[in-house]
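Re: S-adenosylmethionine structure - here you go.
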Amino acid sequence: MSGLNNEADAHPKVIQTGFGKYTLERLPKSFKGDLRAWDAADELILNTLNSDYAAILNQANPILIINDAFGALLTSLHDNTAHSWGDSLLSQLASTNNLHLNQLKVTSHFIPATDELTKTYKLVIIKIPKTLSLLEDQLIRLKPYINPQTIIIAGAMSKHIHRSTLQLFEKIIGTTTTSRATKKARLIYSKNDLENHVTHPYPKTLNIPEFQLDLISHANVFSQNQLDIGARFLLQQLEKCPSAQHIIDLGCGNGVLGIIAQTRQKDAKLTFIDESYLAIASATDSYQKHFKRDPLHQPNFVVSDCFNQYQGDKADLILCNPPFHQAHAVGDQIAWQMFQQSNQQLNQKGELWVVANRHLGYHIKLKKLFGNCRTIASNKKFVVIAAHKRRF
Ligand SMILES: C[S@@+](CC[C@H](N)C(=O)[O-])C[C@H]1O[C@@H](n2cnc3c(N)ncnc32)[C@H](O)[C@@H]1O
């Protein structure tokens, strides 16, 4: 038995389909070295397009690609002009990186999930996203930009296609069928033969009486139907936080940590960072709803992969409820990157406060990176830990 993950093979970085061979990398690059930047659903979509839709591909420009995880679709279909619509800055960066890696020109155009489409498409390719809410949002907003002739092909690993996934296509787009499974992946074909009758349910408002707060969440945003229990545990400790002139809510989602921190430290400058466009839109809306247009409170809202795109000031306090997965892949690489970069982004005496599941053992990571770590609070499931900037 080789120690390699099932998904890896002798050439784990080269995808080969009817459109040729391309080297592909994930972002962050450190994400479990044995995980590929594409899955069998990408291969099935590409091979089906190549065998059954070659003639249409020639006259369908621009094609619309939705939720291309790391650019496997965009790179393989680079002969076409493509519009790539998605919610992840990391996916956008990975797509560009993979085009460069294969010496291909970037002729595609990325449309953030917060932006509306503007033209009608003849061919739409969808990778089914992890959250049903994002799929619902995208199908409803796609509907005005397709006609009955538009070909819509969606793909995912079979285990991620549920009855509820197909019901969304049937309710919003029209007649929907699926392919047989190939390498545990399946396709969904949907025909736009329904009237446009579905109302868009986003953004949603979540009332949190204990903090007298209404949180606004656009589709795809973490914990939009209830306050995350880890976040609640961190919020309960906020009164113990050191006072800060500048607070960063890192991986802010709907902005709950930063907003409550602002209510406790009214004069602090706030920055909200997330790699999801819809998260940053949610944090902006939640913040504005709570503080109205108070000129005293003008936070920064930054779409950034950890601190990579952030160019603002260093902080005295960074609050973080880190992600524990990237789409369907579980791992702590992003949390690790957040911690490493936080150490660089803190002012002298600045502190990083993290809430996490106890079993993840993040106190060991923080101790390693910062040279110190203390437990602020713990319960059966969670710990809130803090580390101050490493002094050299
Ligand atoms: C566990 S959620 C926490 C959300 C919110 N802070 C809360 O406590 O409810 C983690 C957040 O990190 C964001 N995230 C994931 N990867 C990221 C990255 N590379 N850079 C910045 N944010 C990221 C996710 O979009 C998500 O909003």
